[in-house]
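User: I'm designing a mutation panel for Protein ANTHESIS POMOTING FACTOR 1 and want to avoid disrupting the core. Could you give me a predicted structure to guide residue selection? Please restate the sequence first so the numbering is unambiguous.

Assistant: Good idea. Sequence first, for numbering, then the predicted structure tokens:
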Amino acid sequence: MVEFTEKEERVSLELTEEILQSMEPGAVFRDYNCRVSSIDFHKTSTYMVTASDDDSIRLYDVANASCLKTINSKKYGVDLVCFTSHPTTVIYSSRNGWDDSLRLLSLHDNKYLRYFKGHHDRVVSLSLCSTGECFISGSLDRTVLLWDQRVEKCQGLLRVQGRPAAAYDDQGLVFAIAFGGYIRMFDARMYEKGPFEIFSLGGDLSEANVVKFSNDGRLMLLTTMDGHIHVLDSFRGTLLSTFNVKPVAEESTLDATFSPEGMFVVSGSGDGSTHAWGVRSGKQVHSWMGHGSEPPVIKWAPGSPMFVTGSSELAFVIPDLSKLPAYAIRK
């Protein structure tokens, strides 16, 4: 079921600490009965996609908080999912223990368009280049593979020592690979020459979980299994802040996301709760109780004062304007 509240009103807001502190779930989907493992937003439409441990992929229209379609992947399982440039085409990773291929799937007619075979263990990182057909995947087989959506065979292979986290920047010019206490920066056009920069995480050697860039490319974050969220200057590699939450289990992933303008970071925690942090202040701004003990998946909606969390339920977290005196007076 979906629960709607008065907080669904869409208002153009400049995100501040006060607005962030007012945010609460405005629509909640409680029909999963399992863990949501991945969330992605399409950059130019109102669509959102989720993957979950019941082997389903669900397509939502964020504009009216409705589920448009559910597609089951019982044979292969599903773990990570990302939109391509097309609003009803996704790439997703398997989670069935015997086939670690990636798949290009049309949600429109539920047809596989291409299979990408190359990994020999679970894929734990998946990032698509926003400006072209390329994408990158990292696996527990200690490889990072570079792909072209139009070709089944991988276009490049990089070996790593540990669980990798990989991501493109928003312009698709650079990608980062994190493992073993360092983030390695690659030129996407000349990756075979090796990293052009290597940034240290100040001694945090625990396994990398996710690495992400802010929308403007100036900042990047890395989460680790020990419960650390590091925020760095992506040009200089300067460590700006480290936020600390409860550690996560080996099979779990500590997720985090930048707000659209990069002023705040919202992260999960090993105890299932969600936390918001100010990038400049380095201080915690707010926290929300979780549902269960699994760290939630978190994704901020593009250009919107809303983020979505996924655990045993899916929640659209939006400002409650009745808590904000400046907006309450207008009513």
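For picking mutation sites, this is relevant: Helices lie at 17-22, 325-330. The first strand starts at residue 24 and ends at 29.
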